[in-house]
Write the structure tokens for this entry.
Amino acid sequence: MSSHIKKPAVAQKHPGSAAPELKQSLVEHLTYVVGKDVLTATDRDWFFTAAYVARDRLTGRWMETMQNYYARDAKRVYYFSMEFLMGRTLVNNLLNLGFEQEYREVLAELGVNWDKVRKIEDDAGLGNGGLGRLAACFLDSLATLDLPGYGYGIRYEYGMFRQRIENGRQVEHPDNWLRYGNPWEFPRAEVLYQVKFHGHVVKYSDEHGVERSHWVATDDVMAMAYDTPIPGYGTHTVNNMRLWAAKATRDFDLRYFNEGNYIKAVEDKNESENLSKVLYPDDTTAMGRELRLKQQYFFVCASLQDVLRRYEKFHDDFDALPDKVAIQLNDTHPSIAIAELMRILVDVRHLEWDKAWNLTTRTFAYTNHTLMPEALESWPVAMFENILPRHLQIIYEINQRFLQDVMHRYPGDPAMLRRMSLIDEDGGKSVRMAHLAIVGSHKVNGVARIHTELMKQTIFADFDRFYPGKIVNMTNGITPRRWLNQANPLLAELISSRIGDDWKKDLDQLKRLIPLADDAAFRAEFAAVKRANKERLARSLKHQLGFEADPDSLFDMQIKRIHEYKRQLLNLLHVVTLYNRIRHDPDADHVPRTVIFGGKAAPGYFMAKLTIKLINDVADIVNNDPHVADRLKVVFVPNYDVSTAEELIPAADLSEQISTAGTEASGTGNMKLAMNGALTIGTLDGANIEIRDAVGEDNIFIFGLTAEDVTRVRTAGYRPWDYCQANVELREVLDMIGSGYFSADDPDRFKPVVDTLLRYGDYFLLLADYASYIDSQKQVENAYRDQGQWMKKAILNVANMGRFSSDRTVMQYADEIWDVRQMASPE
Ligand SMILES: *Cc1c(COP(=O)(O)O)cnc(C)c1O
């Protein structure tokens, strides 16, 4: 299949990869590691067997890679992220190692059903959505590019909840992903760091009369490392992801044991181990919860100790820290690291403040992921002081010095000082983590061109003026290994048959497909691949949900977290509009459509959960209406996660990217779908704009208000009623939803939906964009009628998506932010 499998270097260096040895190795592992024989082995036994054998083949390269970084004292980049949405690992690792085909063949000889075995693996769902998946794509690119990059995060015992749909509503179930064990991780019982909380600060004068601070009387927790090897594609580089689990301090029990209170001692142990118990399942509202702040400090504190330990093996002062260490903060979640590094350098290592600050700011860089005020983290000062008293003092000190500088530059502007302060003095005082992250970093990046521009013009305009050039753009990307090669093997094979398979490491090679867009034979093969992927999905939907999808219909997909700004509701307004058009004019030539939704709602997000119910209630009516006669169908695919995404995306014809302009920082789902030959219907928001520039405006359906329009409309006083009055179809749709057409058992169920639009101001401007969206959907239909032209557009989408490889993104970070170099891959 892929050419690197044939590379003799791989096969010779790792003799186990020759088929007979692989078979022997599998049987041995089944026997001696899993403790089963071929007769009694279950699919799960075979999964663990395959995983252990694959892991064995990684570990040598992994150690060589680490030794190589060590021997060269390479500058490393540390990606600090609360979330890593990795999905499954087995097939990814086999493809990266070049062993996948061989495994399939050998396991087939052993009578094992590979398709079932690979699906046994639980997704590692340690993330909410785009932000966590970005971290996972970056790890793949770092390793593939032979860059010395480490992921640091939290080993949640429970990841993102599993979503089930019961009576059309979301029900959350715990994600007990470690239940059967995780074959990819190596527990490192000896890599253990102390993390302190609470207590108070004691000031004292040292022997030189300098005032020093001591953080004492703390409650402590231990952080224990779990390492996961991250292999690159077609290289011997294997990087490391280190996740921390909370463990009770070893002496936790002494006090209580001495008092004879065994139960209390064990309870306390559990309490401290709760720190890494569960991922917060809300990615768009920053809840000021104590446990969340503790999780943040917990992993940052352990990670920094680990980073400095590694640095100090080679260096006996900190002067070279920024030349050897780059730390990327994935959103503000880990930004307490700035105060923590200052604490270590000043309080523990006794560096002068200015020197410590210089080193700190040259070490950190911060990625902003959102402009939405409710997502910007700010911690109540009182809570902060209780949990991290010394860090609050350090933040005050940073702030005082920073505001001095601002005052010097802009004298007599107290309003500006108030705006830029790290402390929000309005209401209850709180710490603005984004301001700490900006002031404490040498670079701040947005994740798409428009997002970076809006950052500079709106929420961070003062900072952009104060620090010209600090805010830069790094448009997101996705790894083509998982999102094309692995998710869509048929398309990958077709592409490789025409242009070879260098595209897997150099995605700009896809440009060589451009001339083939006019080649009728290629178009037919491309159409056959899409058709096969749609059939595969249809079989799966039938099997899982009993849902009948016609592969000849247009597969229209909106798969992403459910959120008002992403406007699943606008999509539904279109669905109901289509439904009415079919009902009112059943004999017209309607293009058959299957509208597919998937996505999780934050458990406490009422409107998002109601949207899921509405999707399911609309589906119930539409799918069972004989007048519709299968020309319109709606389905909600439960539990959208990485593995579901891999199954859905190759089958999409149409990609819904319809957020209110100015709200979606980048999006990466948009990239995955376009890279798999879906055409985008979207607003000029996030990376949609850059996708349009890349694929050409003839090959994308753009509609709606621009970000500037949105500001203008809101400023002028938006009146959603006017749009409703002016549009008969819209009025009918809203009447139906509001009056119980889709909820006869509870006619008022969806009144809050309509009220949000008509009474409470329609903040996300659905009604303003409705007519334009409906019109654009009509153009989609017309385009879809001409399958030849549609396939041409789809091919041109794939061919022009090279820029959206996370390899491009990561190289840009490496060159413009981290200053880290590609290493020679170990041989
Ligand atoms: C890519 C991805 C996302 C992000 O999707 P957007 O459409 O960019 O919001 C969310 N969840 C999963 C499982 C993904 O793979």
